[in-house]
Amino acid sequence: MTQVRDTKQRLLDTARELFYARSYEDVGVQEICREAGVKKGSFYHFFPSKRDLTVAMLDESWIQFRDMLLNDVFVRDIPPVQRILRLLDMQYRLHSEAKAKTGHVSGCPFGNLAGEMSTRDEVIRERVKRVFRDLEVPIRDVLEEAAAAGDLPELDSRATACAMVAYLEGLSLMAKTHNDPDIVKQLGPAILKLIVLPGEG
């Protein structure tokens, strides 16, 4: 049973790495199998198609990223608004690590798939959309906590969280375009302009 799980996991991990480094369309099932050391028949035992593998990979990637957010970013050891800045720090660190490893800022794996596949595959588009909606939830919770503490005025937390996710995705795209993680440090703090602090309204 462990060997079966390991085989499936190798396929997921390999697909994630190859898609992130290049693109969905540029990577085929045969290459995924070769890089994972898995026979093609085993691939189709686990996944009826590359799309099914991709959806499973997105699900697993989101769970891992969500756990990182909840355990490393949105813990309640600092004021709520400061946690938004810590989210930017994590974004900068991930882009910096990618560049150190490959020489390239690879952007956001979810955003990359959204940009490439949203007009080509409805199933993948809907799954990535759900990731973005799920990402809004902890950000919305932080905004509501800050408002309840009097650190922010009353605001539309849902719309603001959605705008913040859009801003974060834009940062990743710009960092990828410039191949420079410092874009996140330079432009990131302006995300707080999406909220109105007491005394500024």
Structural overview:
The protein has helices spanning 2-21, 29-36, 40-46, 50-73, 80-102, 109-117, 122-148, 157-178, 182-187. It has 201 residues and is mostly helical. Helix 7 crosses helix 8. It is elongated, with a radius of gyration of 19 Å. The mean pLDDT is 93.
Task: Provide a brief overview of the structure.
By secondary structure, the protein is mostly helical. It has 9 helices and no strands.
Give the arrangement of secondary structure elements.
Blueprint: H1 2-21, H2 29-36, H3 40-46, H4 50-73, H5 80-102, H6 109-117, H7 122-148, H8 157-178, H9 182-187
Helix pairs in contact: 1-2, 1-4, 4-7, 5-7, 6-7, 7-8
CA-atom Rg in angstroms? 19 Å
Low-confidence segments, ≥5 residues, pLDDT <50? Answer: none
Q: Please count the helical segments.
A: 9
Global structural class: mainly alpha
Quaternary form: single chain
CATH class of the largest domain: Mainly Alpha
- State the end-to-end CA separation: 60 Å
How many domains is the backbone divided into? 2
Report mean pLDDT, rounded to a whole number: 93
| Percent of residues in helices | over 70%
Number of strands: 0
Task: Provide keyphrases for this structure.
201 residues; mainly alpha; Arc Repressor Mutant, subunit A; Tetracycline Repressor, domain 2; 2 domains; 0% strand
